[in-house]
Amino acid sequence: QCMSLARNSLFFPSSRDKPLPLTFVPGVKLNRMNGALVQARPKPQAREQWANKLEFLLAVAGHIIGLGNVWRFPYLCYKNGGGAFFVPYVLFLFTCGIPLFFLETSLGQFTSQGGITCWRKICPLFEGLGYGSQVVVLYTGVYYIIILAWAFLYLFSSFSSELPWASCNNYWNTENCKELRKSNITEYSPEKSTSPVIEFWERRILGLSEGIEQIGNVRWDLALCLLLAWIICYFCVWKGVKSTGKVVYFTATFPYLMLVVLLVRGVTLPGAKNGIIFYLYPDPTRLTDPQVWMDAGSQIFYSYGVCTGVLTALGSYNKYDNNCYRDCVYLCLLNSLTSFVAGFAIFSVLGFMADEQGMDISMVAESGPGLAFIAYPRAVALMPLPQLWAIFFFIMIIFLGLDSEFVYHEALVTAISDMYPSFFQTGHRLFLFHSQGGLYVFQLFDYYACSGMTLLTFAILQSICVGWVYGADRLYDSIEDMIGYRPWPFMKCCWKYLTPTICTGTFIFSLVKYTPLKFNNVYEYPWWGYAIGGFFTLSSTLLVPLWMIYLVGTTPGSMRQSTPIIRNGHIVPSPELEILALLCCTPLHSTLFVVRMAIFKFFFLIFFKF
């Protein structure tokens, strides 16, 4: 307690947040590194925790195993050389994905804080990382809730005697609508004809306008589905980790059941073999294309949910001695394995569809919403019992998106409640995305607000902060105190060297290869549309330097005096002050303490100087 009082008084007289107290725990040693005292085990605080380890594992699995595993990874694998794509993918996995995943989870567990206040605890200068990541979480939450609304409407439409996207006999179809079969494939022209599934998507679901300039009217059926999605998400998180921990038992496991069902059905369809070969056939020459490596890196960041503060928030509800290192390795391997297996389920069905329509599979393979709401529904319409398989598929999509969505809510609420315990936010209902021009705004969010370049920026700064400013050795000592042993040294090497280097190279390549967004590769946004996209990107990334400027400008004292505070967080920055803290047991503003400190300083200098 003497050390805690002295340290708090010496270095945090005007701090907005009290540091974690140092307590002496039997069997726990205070480790000294680089002339600094590393904080021992934090004193337990009244904070919610997962009821058991399984709840944490399922919550994290539900967050990272999402739509990207189903609709993005298989397409990137086929597009970038099949099996050869695994070379850059595995490289990014072990040098960026797993190290950053472990970094964020361990920070949350050690500090017991969310995505903002964890940085305040270890390095206040980089607290802007927390604010920026929460802006990305807010944007991504809006992004996912829109997908859920689309999936709900597709699910409800599947309960009909005939799938509404299977024929051209509906009120929304045009005279250009043609059903694709082997018998009429030669008559089909993409320039002059459209398929019923595309018209269902663009005219029935979206009511798509001519451009972002024409926002149009709200689609009230989609708005009601949006409201339903918000209500479900609310009840998933309304009691914090107590409710989230119970919900994930179902939402995180049920998609696996659906994936297995669709996989078994897919591989038994005619033409499935051709689709799987198309998915995995290696093309080593593609490895010479820098875009392949860029796609591998972006998929790792997209799929593993790093640099958003979500993993930090989920880890903060762990018990202090939880083995987060082992958990992270297993969860990362599970995530990548799920992506790999999902490719078989998707491409077996696409191979069947290509065989049924007499088309090359490259003409039917899509990614993103195009796969979930156009390509796969088109394939399902060709199967026996199409309604059953459509229901299974869209239930899987809903649960994959739902897991990610309410975990984003949990992370955002955690970050805010850690800063302002009396504040609680339930979310914002944005009907703009369900207007007739909503898809154009949605694409701006996808391309700019939740872009890989934003996450790359945060990854570089996180690595620099922990690896060089706070100190990778210090964090390793903290992790050893939590789990009882030191993790593989390769992790520390990644934090300091490999991760920032690879992410910087990827970021530079992204800037060089940048091309403005085009909707469906045809429609060009107006200048103010790109300005909105730029605002989405800068609104999160600029918070980091702005916070640094603000903190340096408002911290009292000279630059030299304030540097230990804004750089080292709640760590005693010198051996001399460590000894002072051990010997002095009253606050700095106490006269007695000042006298004691002066006397001790005098004898200290005499002893060491002479």
TrEMBL record:
In its UniProt entry, what is this protein called? Answer: Transporter
- The chain's disulfide connectivity reads C168-C177
* Ranges annotated as spanning the membrane: 54-71, 83-103, 136-156, 218-238, 247-264, 300-317, 329-354, 388-409, 455-476, 497-515, 527-552, 579-608
Query: Taxonomically, what lineage is the organism?
Result: Eukaryota, Metazoa, Chordata, Craniata, Vertebrata
Protein family per UniProt: Belongs to the sodium:neurotransmitter symporter (SNF) (TC 2.A.22) family.
> What organism is recorded for this protein?
Sinocyclocheilus grahami (Dianchi golden-line fish)
Among SUPFAM superfamilies, the record links this protein to: SNF-like
What are the record keywords, sorted? Disulfide bond, Membrane, Metal-binding, Sodium, Symport, Transmembrane, Transmembrane helix, Transport
Gene name for this UniProt entry: LOC107567081
What InterPro entries does the annotation carry? Answer: Na/ntran_symport (IPR000175), SNS_sf (IPR037272)
Tell me the compartments it is located in.
Membrane
